[in-house]
Design the sequence.
């Protein structure tokens, strides 16, 4: 019920205000993607983050994973989700349940801050994660310089506050 479209954020000068815009539920989001006439939507995956930092009265990791994976499976997205959380108990529980429910494509992903992997130690760890067959999808890269650095490094994805800008950047370079 929260109006998330009325307030401007000075950190995002190109953002358009759309008063009355409400957050979608996960069910609404999966329905929207599934109903899209765009061919690319049928292979689109979702990167879902379980936010638990500082929250009280949350379900246990097992119960949260059960509720989340029940919704994901009901919409046919079992092989199309990456589950992320800063609390590894939630991601482990979700991955275990995802496998038990029959998912064929349970991905091992780590999402460090893009600032962190810019240092020499981060680059070394990045290559170590690659050796372990971990996908690296850093957050939050918002500039062409950051995007190019991460592309050159070889990350498998980029979390950004400017998806349209990143898509344009990739398309201009023939990378999408």
Sequence:
């Amino acid at each position: 019920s929260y109006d998330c479209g009325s307030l401007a954020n000075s950190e995002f000068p190109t953002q358009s205000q759309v008063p009355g815009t409400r957050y979608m539920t996960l069910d609404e989001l999966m329905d929207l993607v599934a109903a899209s006439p765009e061919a690319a939507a049928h292979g689109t995956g979702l990167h879902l983050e379980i936010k638990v930092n500082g929250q009280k009265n949350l379900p246990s990791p097992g119960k949260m994973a059960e509720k989340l994976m029940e919704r994901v499976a009901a919409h046919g997205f079992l092989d199309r989700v990456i589950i992320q959380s800063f609390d590894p108990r939630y991601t482990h529980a979700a991955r275990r349940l995802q496998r038990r429910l029959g998912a064929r494509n349970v991905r091992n992903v780590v999402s460090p801050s893009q600032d962190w992997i810019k240092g020499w130690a981060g680059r070394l760890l990045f290559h170590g994660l690659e050796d372990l067959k971990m996908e690296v999808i850093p957050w939050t890269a918002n500039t062409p310089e950051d995007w190019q650095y991460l592309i050159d490094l070889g990350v498998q994805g980029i979390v950004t506050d400017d998806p349209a800008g990143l898509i344009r950047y990739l398309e201009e370079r023939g990378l999408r």
The radius of gyration is 18 Å. The beta strands are 46-49, 81-84, 109-110, 135-136. Residues 61-74 form the longest helix (14 residues). The mean pLDDT is 90.
